């Protein structure tokens, strides 16, 4: 089955799930209205009788079941969206490998800087938010949660890669994995064909962490990290100045910068997508 056919099937399934969500929500609204009216009658009568307590218990039990059913449908819909994005990414990588570029995705070497920066912002904004079940811990690569020990980067994964610059110095750059060679334990980057060992790459987060429900999955204040410097594709050492307070918030970081008296830049915002743990503990 071709990628286009799979995507078309997934879109059809996603459409059905969206319709189911709306049907479930419409059905539950009647029960929520009954809850509201029951509370209004209790306030009017200024009493809480056994009858009302029993009725409300039943109404709230039904409301909880309705919410769980809607949540289950939404999770299935999110899974379909993730599958569609994965297939689109595979198709994009395959086109680049074959040297075929669409108008909306030209090769990086000819891409205007402004276009590239916009794409990076879009990638950060569309990073999915991890929404776990009650009591469920965030998975690896959610926010600051590191990858598992047996993690192997997949084709299309975005990583921070340590490479040699033109002047011979090493730097951390934003890279995209093309392939992983199990026999050599090395990965290949798409743009300049860097072949790197696993020790020289740090996978980027695949989910945003929700500060309101999973604050432990975020870097804490004054923690040393590597962060993508705004308007560049290079990662530099920085200290967390302020972690995100809401799901849509960025980190505020202080980049190491010797041109400032205290050795750090003023606070700059960097999206969760582009902040990873620093493997070097000591300041140079």
Automatic annotation (TrEMBL):
Residues 7-38 form a coiled coil. This is SAGA-associated factor 29. It comes from Sparus aurata. One of its GO terms (biological process) is regulation of cell division. It comes from the Eukaryota. PROSITE patterns: SGF29_C. Signal peptide: none annotated. GO terms for cellular component: ATAC complex; nucleus; SAGA complex. Its main location: nucleus. Keywords: Coiled coil, Nucleus, Transcription, Transcription regulation. PANTHER family: SAGA-ASSOCIATED FACTOR 29. It is found in: Nucleus. Residues 149-284 form the SGF29 C-terminal domain. Pfam families: SGF29_Tudor.
């Amino acid at each position: 089955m071709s990628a286009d056919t799979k995507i078309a099937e997934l879109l059809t399934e996603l459409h059905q799930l969206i319709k189911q969500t709306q049907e479930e929500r419409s059905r539950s609204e009647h029960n929520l209205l009954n809850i509201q009216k029951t509370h209004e009658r209790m306030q009017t009568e200024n009493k809480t009788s056994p009858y009302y307590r029993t009725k409300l218990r039943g109404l709230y039990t039904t409301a909880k079941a309705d919410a769980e059913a809607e949540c289950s449908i939404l999770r299935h819909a999110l899974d379909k969206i993730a599958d569609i994005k994965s297939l689109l990414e595979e198709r994009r990588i395959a086109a680049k490998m074959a040297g075929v570029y669409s108008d909306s995705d030209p090769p990086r070497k000819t891409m205007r800087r402004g276009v590239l920066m916009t794409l990076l912002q879009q990638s950060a904004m569309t990073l999915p938010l991890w929404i776990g079940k009650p009591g469920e811990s965030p998975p690896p690569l959610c926010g600051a949660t590191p990858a598992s020990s047996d993690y192997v980067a997949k084709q299309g994964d975005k990583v921070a890669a340590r490479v040699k610059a033109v002047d011979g110095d090493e730097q951390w750059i934003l890279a995209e994995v093309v392939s992983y060679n199990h026999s050599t334990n090395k990965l290949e980057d798409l743009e300049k064909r860097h072949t790197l060992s696993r020790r020289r790459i740090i996978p980027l987060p695949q989910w945003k962490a929700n500060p309101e429900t999973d604050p432990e999955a975020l870097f804490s204040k004054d923690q040393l990290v590597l962060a993508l410097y705004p308007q560049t594709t290079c990662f530099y050492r920085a200290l967390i100045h302020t972690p995100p307070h809401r799901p849509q918030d960025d980190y505020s970081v202080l980049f190491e910068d010797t041109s400032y008296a205290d050795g750090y830049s003023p606070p700059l915002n960097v999206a969760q997508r582009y902040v990873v743990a620093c493997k070097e503990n000591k300041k140079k």
